[in-house]
């Protein structure tokens, strides 16, 4: 048993497999379970630092509705919605200053997750931060405000788990639900990029890192 290959094989039989597992929801939608766990505390600290500059706030839909998740952004462009519609802006409408820069760790995690899922050269310039509290939800929608659909979107879930809804390319396709947990990263590219999706209301709970909340980061490349 001195052959390294055979001892490596034996190791893998004896030791628990700690690699993040990969689940394909549909072609182009790849869940990397636990991918962000090693960075979870640092990611959470970076969220707090961004929110100290650009506070999490409630946004309004053009139709007069209110989004139940609180939101903020970092990067050169940030997603906003108000009476005037959905769009990306270079400045925070609350402060009229540029959004805080994308923390280096955010860019590293997003690029390496995309690479792991088969999308090389993903360099996001926008990160939307969503904070869910008990009862917060997100209705089924498509993400169509980025103009460039050749780039994937990377999402990172932190804190309380939530039931994510995954639909099809039209609203008529019934969604199925999938539990997104602390540290899960999902890469949405190719055909999956324009699927309808949403999340069910967050169940009340307590998480050791985030307390009563779930955070979701979505990394995008938005054409300027
Ligand atoms: C599939 N966020 O910010 S993350 C969003 O949990 C959004 O906060 C949800 O949908 C959340 O737009 C879902 C997973 C996700 C994010 C973006 C996608 C799935 C996606 C874009 C295209 C396809
Ligand atoms: Fe979305």
CATH topology: Jelly Rolls
Oligomer state equals single chain
How would a textbook summarize the main sheet? 7 strands, antiparallel
Can you tell me the CATH class? Mainly Beta
How many helices? 3
Low-confidence stretches: 1-10
Overall tally of domains: 1
Strand order of the largest sheet: 1-2-11-8-13-6-3
Helical amount:
10-25%
Instruction: Identify the bound ligands.
Output: N-(carboxycarbonyl)-S-(naphthalen-2-ylmethyl)-L-cysteine, fe (iii) ion
**CATH superfamily label:** Alpha-ketoglutarate-dependent dioxygenase AlkB-like
Q: Whole-number average pLDDT?
A: 93
Can you name the CATH architecture? Sandwich
C-alpha geometry:
globular
Structure classification: alpha+beta
Write the layout of secondary structure elements.
Blueprint: H1 4-14, E1 22-26, E2 29-32, H2 40-53, E3 70-75, E4 78-82, E5 85-89, H3 104-116, E6 126-132, E7 138-141, E8 153-159, E9 162-166, E10 176-180, E11 185-188, E12 197-199, E13 214-220
Antiparallel strand pairs: 1-2, 2-11, 3-6, 4-5, 6-13, 7-12, 8-11, 8-13, 9-10, 9-12
The structure holds N-(carboxycarbonyl)-S-(naphthalen-2-ylmethyl)-L-cysteine and fe (iii) ion (FE).
């Amino acid at each position: 048993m001195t052959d390294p290959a055979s001892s490596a094989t034996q190791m893998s039989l004896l030791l628990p497999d700690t690699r993040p597992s990969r689940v394909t929801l549909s072609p182009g939608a790849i869940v990397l379970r636990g991918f962000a766990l090693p960075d979870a505390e640092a990611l959470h600290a970076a969220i707090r630092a961004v929110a100290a500059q650009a506070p999490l706030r409630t946004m309004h839909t053009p139709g007069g509705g209110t989004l139940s998740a609180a939101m903020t952004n970092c990067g050169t462009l940030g997603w906003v919605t108000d009476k005037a519609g959905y769009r990306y802006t270079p400045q925070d409408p609350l402060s009229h200053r540029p959004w805080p820069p994308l923390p280096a760790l955010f860019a590293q995690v997003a690029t390496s997750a995309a690479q792991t899922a088969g999308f090389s050269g993903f360099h996001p310039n926008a990160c939307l931060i969503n904070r869910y509290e008990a009862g917060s939800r997100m209705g089924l929608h498509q993400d169509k405000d980025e103009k460039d659909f050749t780039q994937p979107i990377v999402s990172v879930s932190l804190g309380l788990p939530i039931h994510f809804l995954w639909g099809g390319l039209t609203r008529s396709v019934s969604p199925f639900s999938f539990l997104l947990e602390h540290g899960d990263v999902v890469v949405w590219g190719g055909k999956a990029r324009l699927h309808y999706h949403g999340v069910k209301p967050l169940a009340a709970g307590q998480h050791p890192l985030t307390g009563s909340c779930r955070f979701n980061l979505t990394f995008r490349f938005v054409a300027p």
